[in-house]
UniProtKB/TrEMBL annotation:
Transmembrane domains' residue ranges: 20-39, 45-67
UniProt KW keywords: Membrane, Transmembrane, Transmembrane helix
Domain of life: Bacteria
Protein name: Acyltransferase
Length: 109
């Protein structure tokens, strides 16, 4: 299984650069329960499996493209830890960190 998971032969071009695994993990069970509640007694094992995989993949794709990917982009931009790990050319200087740590000045009338 480890060999198959790390093999380049199983790469799908449509999934390159996308990570739907957390979305499938997160939404799989609730969507299965919703399908059972919405359509009781309709499912055979094969149709239930196909419907739940399709629903969880669709929700995972939506979650990746609308929620996770934009948040990860913001993290690279605003996180000091991410900038430090990116390399010294993008890491904030000591002066920049000191400015970020200072509270904003409040204008008084």
């Amino acid at each position: 299984m480890v060999y198959l998971g790390l093999s380049r032969r199983l790469e799908f071009r449509i999934l390159k650069g996308r990570d739907y695994s957390y979305g499938v993990y997160l939404y799989g069970y609730p969507l299965q329960q919703a399908l059972i509640q919405l359509f009781p007694g309709v499912w055979s094992v094969a149709t239930f499996f196909a419907a739940s995989v399709a629903a969880s993949l669709a929700m995972a794709a939506f979650s990746w493209n609308v929620i996770e990917k934009p948040i990860l982009r913001l993290r690279r931009r605003w996180s000091v830890a991410a900038q430090i790990h990116a390399g010294p050319e993008t890491a904030p200087t000591a002066e920049a960190r000191a400015l970020q740590a200072q509270p904003a000045a409040v204008a008084v009338r």
